[in-house]
Amino acid sequence: MVQIGDVVVSFDVFREKFLCDLDACKGKCCIEGDAGAPVEADEVDKLKEVLPVIWEELSPEARAVIEKQGVVYTDEEGDLVTSIVNGKDCVFTCYDERGYCYCVIEKAFREGRCDFYKPVSCHLYPIRIDDYGTFKAVNYHRWDVCKAAVLLGKKENLPVYKFLKEPLVRKFGQAWYDELETVAAELQKQKLI
User: Fold this and answer.
1) Is the dihedral of CA 174, 143, 80, 138 positive or negative?
2) Which residues pair with 17 in a beta bridge?
3) CA 63, 119, 115, 90: dihedral to nearest 10 degrees?
4) What is the pTM for the complete model shown?
5) Would the pLDDT of 163 be above 90?
6) Running DSSP on this structure, what letter comes out for residue 138?
7) Do residues 67 and 59 lie in contact, with contact meaning Cβ atoms separated by under 8 Å?
């Protein structure tokens, strides 16, 4: 692991390769798992604010869950996560004409209808951030759903940290990311990654 400011980064973030292959997975990361996506406390209000913009695009089942329990809940591990439908699907998941899952919040953002991209944990995936109070840990998360993304990442030789440049800058800032790239270059020079 390496430390940049108060953030500790796993070597896997530098070593592992990743590039989403939506044609292979069809967005399964939004509909698989045993809980919703992690949400930061300051994102709850943003999720509530975007509801009027996206409400009609949500499934009737998702609207019912949101009306009953809200946009988030606390999971078994005590983490704040997006509400889910059918025990696994994120309430903000919708489908296109090909049957691919997508985030309705991200769609609204890309269309200029809102100023919130989506929860940063979703944007950062396959990186997960653990908060230990005095420092944060940046770790690569392996999931069978993303096998095709790993294969495509290897084919394109795209490290996780480069694939996730935009969300890493969103989370930690450009200066932090620039330092991450400097560290990566030094690790490559030393043949550690």
Assistant:
1) negative
2) 159
3) -20
4) 0.87
5) yes
6) E
7) no
Q: Is 16 exposed, middle or buried (0-12, 13-18, 19+ CB in 10 A)?
A: buried
Element (H, E) at 22: helix 22-25
Confidence band, pLDDT 50/70/90 cuts, at residue 193: confident
- The CA R_g of the chain, rounded to the nearest whole Å, is 17
Pair 105, 117: CB distance under 8 Å: yes
- Residue 180's contacts (CB-CB under 8 Å, 6 or more residues apart) are 4, 9, 161, 168
One-letter amino acid identity for 79?
D
Task: Break the chain down into helix, strand, coil percent, rounded to 5.
Answer: 45, 20, 35
Please name the amino acid found at residue 180. Answer: L
Q: 26-41 burial string, b = 16+ CB within 10 Å, else e?
A: bbbbbbebebbbbbee
- What is the rounded distance in angstroms from the CA atom of residue 9 to the CA atom of residue 81? 23
Q: Give one DSSP letter per residue of 83-136, joined into a string.
A: -EETTTEETTEEE-TTS-EEEHHHHHHHTTS-S----HHHHHTTEEEEE-SS-E
